[in-house]
Write a structure and sequence with these properties.
Keywords: Methyltransferase, Transferase. This is Uroporphyrin-III methyltransferase. Pfam families: DUF488-N3i (PF22752). One of its GO terms (biological process) is methylation. It is a single chain. By secondary structure, the chain is α/β, with parallel strands linked by helices. The chain has one domain. The chain has five helices and four strands, in the order ββαβαααβα. The chain has a four-stranded parallel beta sheet with strand order 1-4-2-3, with helices on one face. α1 links the parallel β2 and β3. It starts with 6 loop residues before the first strand and ends with a helix. The mean pLDDT is 93.
């Protein structure tokens, strides 16, 4: 039996919403100008973020988006511990993946949400 996972993606700078569920920051670096109180995090999962080398190579360049997605998905496939940690949360209820990037379409949380949705079904 397959079921739809309840995963949302939001900027960490946006105020929390009632339907957020568990709020998980998926950036390797803490976002500038956000206090821990304002972030309202349940978990900061640095280990699921893209590697430093990949993040620096991508540098939020939309022209590299497709290649970034492929490389990041390969990193996720090779990172079963962090994936298991976030999947355990998702199986308990809604999860909101938080990111700090300005670009709402080209960021690691978008890739991660799609990857989890594809790989996390029963």
């Amino acid at each position: 039996m397959t079921h739809k996972l309840h995963i949302q993606v939001r900027r960490v700078y946006d105020p929390p919403e009632a339907d957020d569920g568990a709020r998980v920051l998926v950036d390797r670096l803490w976002p500038r100008g956000v206090s821990k109180e304002r972030a309202h995090l349940d978990l900061w999962l640095k280990d699921i973020a893209p590697s430093t080398a990949l993040r620096e190579w991508f540098n939020h360049d939309p022209a590299k988006w497709s290649a970034f997605g492929e490389r990041y998905q390969a990193e996720l496939s090779a990172n079963p511990v962090a994936v298991a940690q976030i999947m355990a949360l998702i199986k308990q209820g809604p999860v909101t993946l938080l990111y700090g990037a300005r670009d709402t379409e080209h960021n690691e949380a978008v890739v991660l949400a799609a990857w989890l949705d594809k790989h996390g079904k029963d």
